[in-house]
Every structure is written in structure tokens, then in C-alpha cells.
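Side project, low priority. Logging it here so it doesn't get lost.
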Amino acid sequence: MLERRPIQGGPGSSLRSSGTPSRQRWRQTDGGPGSGFGSRARARLEGPGSGSGTPCRLRRQGGFTLIEVMAAFMVFALLFGVVLQILSTSVGNTRMSGDYTQAALWAQSKLDVLGLEQMIEPGVSQGRFNDEFTWTMDVSETQVVDERGLDLQEELPIALYHVVLTVEWAEGRREATFETLRSVDTYWEERQRQSGGGGRQ
């Protein structure tokens, strides 16, 4: 707080020749008995229970605690496991897609020669494409009917066959099935004989 005190001088120094009061100085006190300013200022600087008036030192802790490190490690482990699961699933799907593509190519090559290099006959046959892929073919004769449900097999010079080709791999744990219809000219042998050619090779 500020206290105004007059300056003490010698005799006659309080009044000048003009009769006006002399100037007074302002002095800041440090808080005497009963003054609240000095005690509050000292209380902020002194630590609790420090009777000597020594200023307290502020301490700041740096780094991470053990609980924070463990929590961060657990979060990292969970995220890492999720990423590994996604990568393994992606790799598995990519390999499965490649296997199905390979099976489709093998099936297409087998069906392309059906009726050309291999005669179409009802029955079941089996074979292997390589050490990994195998095939099973089921050929059955089907009827040709019109919209009224009448059989047109006798009126048409063709025979219609239903072909089901199953390709297996991974020791039978994976398979892909392909179906198609193939027609055979029933009068082919007769026309060959009439033209002087040989029979069916």
C-alpha cells in the first residue's frame, strides 16, 4: 500500500516564502504490522509450512508414466493385429481368385475339344489336368421339347446333351462346376456313308 508522509525539515522548512505547503513524497511500504499486502506477497512465495520465508521451488515432471506406456503398447498391439488380419485375408482372397481363374481356364480347354477330339457320349469320365487340378465330366442326354411340352427329338436331326464339368483342386477341398449344352448331328454317320467317307473316327 502507499502511505503519504510529509518530509521533515528544519525550522521554517514546512512553509516557503510564498506561504504554500512544501511537496510531499510517496513511499511504498513493505507492509508493517496489520498490513495485508506484505503478508499476502510472502505467502505466495513461501511454501506450505516454511517458517523461514524461503521461496518454494516449482517442480515439473517430464516423460511418460508406466501406465501410459502400457496403454500405448496395448493400442499398438491391437491395431497391429487388425492390420495383420486384413493382410492375411487379402492374400487368401487373392490366391483363391487365382485358383478359380486357373480352374476356369482348364475347364474351357476341356470343353473346347468336346465333340471335336473327344466324342460326346452319355456317361461319367474323370481325369487330371496336372498334379493339382482334376476334372469330372457327367454327360447326359436331354429332351428337346416345344412350348407345348412335346418331344421333338424324332423330328429334329440332332441329339442334345447336358454336360456338367467339375474341376477340383487343393486335394478336393475346392471345386468349381461348369455346365453347358452340346448338340450332336444324329445323321452324321449316315451322311458319311453316303458320301463314301469312313465311319466316325
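Brief comment: The beta strands are 2-5, 25-28, 123-128, 134-142, 158-169, 174-185.
Revisit when time allows.
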